[in-house]
Design goal:
Elements (H helix, E strand, L loop, with lengths): L3 E7 L6 H7 L8 E7 L6 H5 L9 E5 L5 E5 H16 L5 E4 L13 E4 H13 L4 E6 L17 E6 L8 H8 L4 E4 L6 H11 L3 E3 H12 L1
Amino acid sequence: MARKRTAFITIGESPRPDILDEMRPWWDGSSLDIEEHGVLDGLTPVEIERLAPGDEDVPLVSRLHDGTEVLLAADSVHRRVEEIARKLDGGGIDVVVLLCTGRFHGLTSKGILVAAGPVVDHGIAAFADSLPSIGVLLPNEGQMASFRCEPAGSRRFLLSHASPYSGDRWETAARELEEADLVVMHCMGYTEPMRRKLAQKTGKPVLLARRMVAAAVAQVL
């Protein structure tokens, strides 16, 4: 079997071993060559600061090499992701994986594109008809007002927030989500230990974005 070239795009700085090390077991045994690209790769602190969200921007959350959390304006990130995708189109990449659950409408690739946002949102939609309410954990409070899960229509969502990179809001978030029938951790930064912790505190089943995306990637390798 020919080795598949797979490019992972993070909206922070690459590489992201904190994400890929948890995802790799899902495709152990597959023949693939991995390369990573980051929206913030090669940028100076001043250039990164220019991508920060303003009052009217939807914030996206990621991290730098040293683990520091960074907030970015969604529109600015979208443009830079499109630039990376266009460059990858000329490089013989078989699969492109976008490691961000934000909405990136119109993003295309000559290879197979696995965008985390649609994977997670359609996963939510698969449960929506059978559950009265679904809890969604977001990484930043500023994302709550604009959150939509289009495939799930107007289902009842209970929203809360806790950053995977900073702060300690887990106790509060768990209390805010404990009335939901199912909880979704809607950010690629959330880890499996975080998932187990939230499941224990809420007593509810919890879906982890990176596991959902890893399973999708495994299907196309």
